[in-house]
Amino acid sequence: MRRGRTLIRTFVAAAMLAGVAGAGAGPALAQTAPPTTAPTTAPNPTAESVNEDLLFKQAPTIGGRISIPDQKAANLIQPQGREWRGFHETWMPWIGAAAILGMVVLLALFYFTRGRIRLEHSEESGRKILRFNGFERFTHWMTATCFIILALSGLNYIFGKRLLMPVIGPDAFATLSQWAKYAHVYLAWPFMLGIIFMFVVWLKDNIPNRIDVAWIKAGGGIIGDKHPHAERFNAGQKVVFWMVAGFGAAMSVTGLVMLFPFAATDINGMQVMQGIHSLIGVAFIAAILAHIYIGSLGMEGAYDAMGSGKVDLAWARVHHDLWVEKEQARTASGPQLRAHQAPAE
Amino acid sequence: MKAFAVAVICAVAIGIAASYVLSTSQRYAWQAFSTSSARVSHPGTNLVGPRWTGDVKGPHDEVAGETTAPKRS
Description:
The complex is a heterodimer of chains A (345) and B (73).
Chain A: H1 2-32, H2 45-48, H3 52-58, E1 62-63, E2 75-77, H4 79-114, E3 128-130, H5 134-168, H6 170-186, H7 188-202, H8 210-217, H9 235-259, H10 267-295, H11 304-307, E4 310-312, H12 313-319, H13 321-331
Chain B: H1 2-23, H2 29-32
Region (Disordered) (chain B): 39-73
InterPro entries (chain A): Cyt_b561_bac/Ni-Hgenase, Di-haem_cyt_TM, FDH_cytochrome_b556_subunit, Formate_DH_gsu
Region (Disordered) (chain A): 28-48
């Protein structure tokens, strides 16, 4: 009897719940069903909401509001940054590798086909003439040593995480990169000073003239066996001088812009500067590789000019005949040997 | 060789001098960007503390197939 009453109560309760649920679901279904008479010009909130394209038509960047002092941190999206990152991470390693490895391959081909340019002996062989004084050698080597450190630490920015980190591990790479960054930032200053010194000291000897045109037409004595006339610096050396002056100035300006962030330009300008800095940097390294080759392995007797400062008179007569004549006429006593200097044998 | 040695010594000396001069115009991030309401790191540490090793693994970082200890319920 009690069970029967319980069943009846259960049915009654279920029927009431079903009725309530049906009454509640009716309006809900009516709301979700597509209105048959709704106007077609009803606003679409999604279509009219603010999107990225619309914001970029109003301003080049998308920013927010922040409470920390550095208002630059409010910048949320700067589209040029994606392009810069794409260039730095995708194109730059390939451009750098092509420039530097390409130059190494070219120099190797030149060495194995042309061979080392040998010293031509004459009756003047063994006698020395001063080619670069102490200050000239000092400024050359200060710039050169800084350049090598700057080049290696600069290449670490491009290739380090790809080539070095898998070899030495992330911890050693992090420590090395930190010190490389210090070296890059601080040795840039003696490098810039050296560029200024070299420009001032050697400018007067590097003004292009007709002799350089004839030197270039004759192939510079490297391609053939005949040595064209040259003053203190031949056309090839003048190209190196102006390349170092131009690239050095460009690297200095772009480097300073990055060294003092936001002092001269915004984030987009700094990214452009970084791109220029890295492109000129790899071209600079490739060109200096050729300079190092011809000043050491490529030409016998050339290193002495920057090593001891004195070169063999026979070498100087072959490669810089007009300069030797001028120097001898200036001293009017033959080669620039002082009283205490004995001719090298 | 003498010119080379002097050049290297001068380059290092100028570099060290540059580091001292430049340091006068620099401030640590915790100095430059901290406010009365926002604290940015501590000198010598970072926001996640000095013992952070970078090897923190979350529940979604488990390698597929790697067995984990059963949870006690």
